[in-house]
Amino acid sequence: MKTRYLFPIIILFFVLPGKIEAQYPDDNSLKLSGDLLVDERFLLEDPNDWAWNETRLSFNLDKKITGDSKFHSEIWLRNIGLPDITASADLYNKGIVDPYNLEIREAYIHLFGFLTDKLDVKIGRQYIPWGTADQINPTDNLNPYDMEDILDFGRHRGSDAVNLNFYFSDRFSLQGVFIPFFQPANMPAGIFSDALNPEMQLPQGMVLREYSDTIVMPRYNIGQSSVSALKFKGFIKGVDFSFSYVWGIDGLPFNTRNTFIPVDQYGGMNINARLSFARTHIIGADLVTSIAGIGFWAEAAIFVPEKDILMINDLSALYPESPVPVTQDSLLLDKTNPYVKFAVGADYFFSDGSYFNLQYIHGFIHERGNENLNDYFLMQYEKKFFREKLKIAPVGGGFIVSDWNEISDNYAIIYKPEIAYKATDNAEISLSPVIFDGKGNNLFANLKDYNMFIVKVNYSF
């Protein structure tokens, strides 16, 4: 985005709302709210490299146009990342010297009583959250995952969608969603950029020299790139529940073809990979309730690939005299063998102001296939002091097991205590170390060299 566009944007956010409020009293005024987030992180290991730098202005614009409709938008204006300067020419590019971006997270209209009093519709870019679990929701598969910050579990981007809600009564409703084109997940940024890339295992005697890949996107038409979904929601005897179905596309690509090209006589190989996305049927259910003051939730989703997903290793270049292509195939996902992700958990607020949260998750965001789903035990305990101005969370994090038969070599530990102080009602400062440890090839064990300290300031307005 060029700098000349920033001035009219600032005018829109700060001048225009004031003028509109003067013209439309009370609920009809255009309301501006949001927050300022400063998020700084550095590694604990010497020389304490900087791991994350973000200053985010989040603007929410809301307008009740009439009694039957309203408008909502959320916009992020950010300075994010560290200067990636490799040549003197980069010094002439302010976007490299001082990186920033503008992102429209949501922008939609909400029509109440559309065609009938029982039907509401949202049209435009929107986040459609599904599920009852805490942050990690197996049934939340409509919007693409925003995995930019690997520590912000469960963040999604908005999708351009038509979102219909039909209310049979105050206890039962049916939701229908249509997303006309597919958007993939975006990968982690900065030092986390390789966190989700598995270590490539080559046959004995082969050495990887260069790796390149090509992503094959679904064709942008209704049949190949659209996503649609239905969800029935109800409330019976203190239990909120839902059943859902998504005809979707997995937001993370599969490696479906590797072409091996020998480059020397010492086993050196260049690998050209082809990545593609898979159509998936997702059947989900969730519930949430409270028993004796304890909140309980459970959520599960069955993932059924529309067809078998194969990875083909093309070794033809190694056998130039062969009259037919030489390939080795391996089955990544079997359409006749669906896999299930689920989460169960509970939380409780004690009379002394403390809070406890415990959750078990089978299958993380990036894991697919029954044999690749790890087990996550997440826990948090916090207590507030001095009229809730000071919050101390001595227990926070989780324990992950990727192979129960050999736990000592296949586990990960996350420890994230936190101290937060509310300087005012709308300003909070928090400090938190994050410690990773473990063994084996799982996401969080791979982060054990990135133990860090986080400082955040959040101001809402």
Summarize it:
This protein has four helices and 24 strands. The chain has 461 residues and is mostly beta strands.
Task: Name the features.
24 strands, 5% helix, 53% strand, mainly beta, 461 residues, five-stranded mixed sheet
List the helices and strands and how they pair.
Layout: H1 6-14, H2 16-23, E1 30-43, E2 50-66, E3 69-80, H3 94-97, E4 100-111, E5 119-126, E6 159-167, E7 172-179, E8 207-216, H4 222-225, E9 227-236, E10 239-249, E11 254-262, E12 268-276, E13 279-291, E14 294-305, E15 309-314, E16 327-333, E17 339-349, E18 354-362, E19 375-385, E20 390-401, E21 411-415, E22 418-424, E23 427-439, E24 452-460
Parallel strand pairs: 8-12, 11-15
Antiparallel strand pairs: 1-2, 1-24, 2-3, 3-4, 4-5, 5-6, 6-7, 7-9, 9-10, 10-13, 11-12, 13-14, 14-17, 15-16, 17-18, 18-19, 19-20, 20-21, 20-22, 21-23, 22-23, 23-24
Q: List the helices and strands in order.
A: HHEEEHEEEEEHEEEEEEEEEEEEEEEE
Helix content range: under 10%
Summed over residues and divided by their number, the pLDDT gives a mean of 91
* Major β-sheet annotation: 19 strands, antiparallel
Evaluate the radius of gyration: 25 Å
N-to-C CA distance:
26 Å
Percent strand: over 45%
Indicate the low-confidence ranges by residue numbers: 1-25
- What structural category characterises the helix and strand content? mainly beta
DSSP summary: helix tally: 4
Number of strands: 24
Shape: globular
